[in-house]
Amino acid sequence: MEIPPLLIQTIGSLVAIFLLFLLARWMRLGGKPGLNSEEGVSSAAAEVIDGFEAEGFAFGDSGSAAIARDADGRFVLIKRHGNKFAGRLLDHGAWAESWRDNHPNGQRGPRIIVDSGDRLFGKVTLFTDEPETWAEAINAL
Amino acid sequence: MPDFSPTQIAVPFFVLAVLVEMIWSRLRRPEAYEPMDTMVSLLFGLGSTVAGALFGGFAAFVFIEAYEYRLFDFGEEWWAVWWAWPLAFLLDDLKYYWVHRAGHRIRWMWAAHVNHHSSQHYNLSTALRQTWTGSFTFGLLFAIPLILIGFHPAMIAIVGGFNLIYQFWIHTEAIDRMPRWFEAVMNTPSHHRVHHATNPRYLDRNYAGVFIIWDKMFGTFEAERDDEQIRYGIIKQLGSFNLLWSVFHEWIGMLTDIWNAPWKHKLSYLLREPGWTHDGSRDTSDTIRARWLERTGGGTDTAPKQVASRNPIAGSGEAA
Hints:
heterodimer; A: PH-domain like; B: mainly alpha; 56% helix; disordered C terminus
């Protein structure tokens, strides 16, 4: 049986791509930036929405995510994506849940779980002393 | 006429060049590459090749049919007419400018072309991040005038291949600026970084393939500034490395919008610019730029400070 050249080429290319991926990991390319400071989150939020001036903040674990609120009551949800950040301006499709007790996933402390409404963006857990206030404001969008 | 595909021959050199740039990245800027992003970009390249093999036949059929109606005949040995080659290359590059401009300004075309822009990185692997769905747009129509003039479809395919090969090396941050005379005429890493930027100032600029002169002629040129750090990607960054979502997200979004839109607006969601909505609820590149201009006056923005501190683009101020 003769194997089609396109198939051979495709399999060979897949192997080469995977090897390059492994090499990039082995070389430790990339890194993990963090959303650890209000200044950093402000900057990231302004990248999502040009001119966005953040006034309120909540942060995720290890700088993996954050949410920023501006004076107009808009929210920008940001998460680490690879070694960059991606964000969403929340709208009526967003949803938030506040927690003060232990969450079934084992996390402790007052926090909110925010769903941007974009399934592939995923849910984000953020820690704040006022989880109910945040959740209520997001759910009111 | 020999059976000749310049891009296929170039593939091993592409891989080698990515390897070399990865080593440069390791030594100078480890953040310039991200393993998952690189893998997705390369899978885009592979899928694009497969899609071309599967669906490219339709374009070939249309071109061969159109060739029957050519105005000028270069003869049976059309490939031996030496001066036709540089002329075809030049005109094909002009065609590329317009098909590329359409790729950014018409949502149907953008649904396919967005794939090339959806990485937040700008390196040689980004160059290989090519669409799988180009055959499902009307981009092929832009080549019809060249065929009707009399350029053989194979000649158009070959010069188009060289055009793509040229564009490979300009997808890098490893090169700052080329000599001034070169920057004046040719598309360069600097000019093309602007094209991949999401900064309001740079949106929908520098569509050129090989010769930057087209942007200067048609009013879409923007020079890269040293005082403004570039952010790469798309306005609504994907936030996901899911390959299939990356390939089809804009098609899904566009078809959903068409489905939900009132009848009189359905066609506009297909043919108007990305971000256009009948109720003005989303931003287009024009509205984003207008708002930015109103806010800043278009001068030197505070953009470098607006870049998150650990993003590579927020580095030491070194030119991209």
